[in-house]
């Protein structure tokens, strides 16, 4: 049974709603058969996908979204919810997590594509693998600097990771390509690696230091509005600081290990 809403404006109007029985001619008012009381209740009832929901809006001003999300998840994890009640994070959190997933897939695809391009350029499966050995130390440097500076892993820092991978790979290519050329000219592998590392050290240091020095103001975030780009700069700086040091030793050592065995096998065959 439904009563017209425009005729029920006060609690008294509700109590005076007439009720008629099937065999009764006189009406009976509602307050004579039921007890009408007032209780606290929401003035608006929202629904999401047919489920009744209560929306709680959080608008952080100075904190980053990732840190606020972790704090909210900790509160939800330690709160005992009533039966049939669940908490779902929506809004910007969904967009952030979708961005993380897409960036992770993009980073993996970029590394795979770089490897395939290098395989086509060098006509070798070993050389691109040696070149990409500089990427894991760069990722470790990114995480280390973000941890030291208290920066979260967000969309901007992931963009910095992608840019850092490109710079690190280019530095590694300088050593491998030059060592490969010297080795083809007839030099032993150890001597070719030594010459390539010594001659390519200066260009690698110059380009890396120029990039790091240029990104320091952005990483510090001294200007208003530059805080959002600080994670990008910090990710690149952290990756370069570690990868440059490791690349100088790791890439030549890997090249020497791979091609030293081939050189020994070739000498044994000739003997």
What would you say this structure looks like, in words?
Helices cover 64% and strands 4% of the residues. β1 (18-19) and β2 form a beta hairpin. The chain has helices at 11-15, 65-78, 92-122, 126-131, 135-149, 155-184, 189-220, 230-270; strands spanning 18-19, 28-29, 46-48, 51-53. α5 packs antiparallel against α6 and α6 runs antiparallel to α7 (189-220). The chain starts with 10 loop residues before the first helix and ends with a helix. It is mostly helical. The strands form 2 sheets. The chain has a two-stranded antiparallel ribbon. A two-stranded antiparallel ribbon has the order 3-4. The protein has 2 domains: 1-40, no CATH class; 105-270, Up-down Bundle (Multidrug efflux transporter AcrB transmembrane fold), CATH 1.20.1640.
């Amino acid at each position: 049974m439904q009563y017209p809403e425009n005729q029920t404006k006060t609690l008294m109007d509700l109590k005076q709603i007439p009720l008629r029985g099937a065999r009764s001619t006189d009406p009976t008012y509602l307050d004579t058969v039921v007890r009408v009381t007032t209780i606290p209740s929401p003035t608006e009832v929202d629904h999401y996908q047919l489920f009744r929901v209560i929306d709680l809006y959080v608008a952080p001003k100075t904190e980053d979204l990732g840190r606020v999300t972790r704090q909210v998840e900790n509160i939800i994890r330690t709160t005992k919810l009533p039966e049939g009640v669940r908490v779902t994070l929506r809004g910007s959190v969904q967009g952030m997590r979708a961005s993380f997933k897409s960036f992770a897939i993009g980073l993996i695809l970029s590394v795979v594509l770089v490897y395939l391009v290098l395989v086509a350029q060098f006509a070798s499966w070993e050389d691109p693998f040696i070149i990409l050995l500089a990427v894991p130390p760069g990722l470790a440097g990114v995480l280390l600097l973000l941890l030291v500076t208290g920066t979260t892993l967000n969309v901007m820092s992931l963009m910095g990771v992608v840019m850092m991978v490109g710079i690190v790979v280019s530095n590694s290519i300088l050593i491998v390509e030059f060592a490969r050329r010297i080795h083809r000219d007839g030099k032993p592998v150890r001597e070719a690696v030594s010459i390539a590392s010594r001659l390519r050290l200066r260009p690698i240091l110059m380009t890396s230091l120029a990039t790091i020095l240029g990104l320091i103001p952005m990483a510090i975030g001294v200007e208003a509005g530059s805080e959002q780009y600080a994670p990008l700069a910090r990710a690149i700086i952290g990756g370069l600081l570690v990868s440059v040091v490791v690349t100088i030793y790791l890439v030549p050592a890997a090249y020497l290990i791979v091609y030293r065995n081939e050189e020994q096998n070739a000498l044994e065959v000739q003997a």
